Structure to design on (101 residues):
């Protein structure tokens, strides 16, 4: 009986690993938009946390320091969104276990 239980547990672990790999691939294909200045500055980021696009309204060009701060805000906004989506997707696979991915 113990062997059957162990085999079942190993099968579940293997299935969880396969599900986690599928979710990781799905996360990498994500694209999230980070915003600042009410959308005047937009940053697009993929699931690998790489910025893929930046859109800046011309009205923001007059203040270099403010623009730099807004870029940071938008990048952090996109990063936070990717993190939250990733956590939720992984939670569904791991049943709430806090496993590294």
């Amino acid at each position: 009986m113990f062997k059957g239980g162990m085999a079942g547990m190993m099968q579940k672990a293997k299935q969880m690993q396969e599900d986690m790999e599928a979710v990781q691939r799905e996360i990498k294909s994500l694209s999230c938009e980070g915003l600042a200045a009410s959308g005047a500055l937009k940053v697009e980021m993929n699931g690998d946390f790489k910025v893929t696009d930046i859109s800046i309204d011309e009205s923001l060009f007059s203040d270099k320091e403010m623009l730099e701060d807004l870029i940071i805000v938008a990048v952090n906004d996109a990063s936070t969104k990717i993190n939250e989506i990733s956590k939720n997707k992984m939670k569904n696979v791991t049943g709430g276990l806090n496993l590294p991915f």
